[in-house]
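ok, trying the design again with the full structure, not the truncated one.
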């Protein structure tokens, strides 16, 4: 199963696209991927209009605790203790510098692809060895058929050959 850690701005993009939401829901329900968020993204998205929140609420996102405690950002019971050296590489400049750190560190801890439009977080994540995608790439990926799932459906639907005893005429081929 593929795992993707969504930065909060990606939630806006999912809210804006019925097709993307439907693809996400379908792929999650089939067990083909997981879309992860932490309380940080949830808290950031809480300021979004209620309509956007309702649209995103239709997607079965997986809430995971942050990897790393950041004073003023982390919530008790929703964060794992981490070494400062595991979180600090993800600290970015600007407005979200301390909220980005636990998102990036959690993506690495969860072995998830980090999906973001934030160039600063993307650069830090790449430098720390975390695979990053842009939201457009995730949406395109979700909209394509999963070749393994297609193959499984084809194999599952193929008729198995009958044995001679199962043939209506009782003859062997």
């Amino acid at each position: 199963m593929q795992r993707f850690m969504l930065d909060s701005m990606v939630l806006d993009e999912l809210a804006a696209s019925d097709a993307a939401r439907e693809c996400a829901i379908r792929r999650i329900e089939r067990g083909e991927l997981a879309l992860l968020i932490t309380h940080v993204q949830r808290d950031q998205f809480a300021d979004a209009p209620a309509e956007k929140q309702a649209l995103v609420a239709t997607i079965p996102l997986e809430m995971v605790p942050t990897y790393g405690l950041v004073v003023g950002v982390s919530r008790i019971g929703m964060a794992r203790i981490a070494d400062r050296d595991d979180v600090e590489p993800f600290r970015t400049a600007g407005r979200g510098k301390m909220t980005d750190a636990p998102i990036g560190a959690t993506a690495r801890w969860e072995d998830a692809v980090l999906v973001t439009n934030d160039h600063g977080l993307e650069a830090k994540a790449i430098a720390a060895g975390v695979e990053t995608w842009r939201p457009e790439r995730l949406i395109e990926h979700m909209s394509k058929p999963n070749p393994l799932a297609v193959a499984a459906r084809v194999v599952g639907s193929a008729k198995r050959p009958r044995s001679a005893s199962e043939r209506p005429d009782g003859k062997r081929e």
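Keeping the full-length input from now on. The mean pLDDT is 81.
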